[in-house]
């Protein structure tokens, strides 16, 4: 893809695409049954998305991923953060 595409996404979302790519690379070999790993990813997604995640929300997401077998990717976590926080920072 060309750089203009990514620059347009950055401009519209305020999300740095390099951060997204770094996160995606870190997810490839991560152990998603490990609570600390999952919490770290949630915090990183929260930071990239510029959304705060309270302890209760983080616990729900961790439980969903570890215990319920939810797929872990940027979109899944971002959606969970937005739904739980109702889009509020």
Automatic annotation (TrEMBL):
InterPro entries: SpoVIF. It holds the Pfam family SpoVIF. This is Sporulation protein. It comes from Rossellomorea pakistanensis.
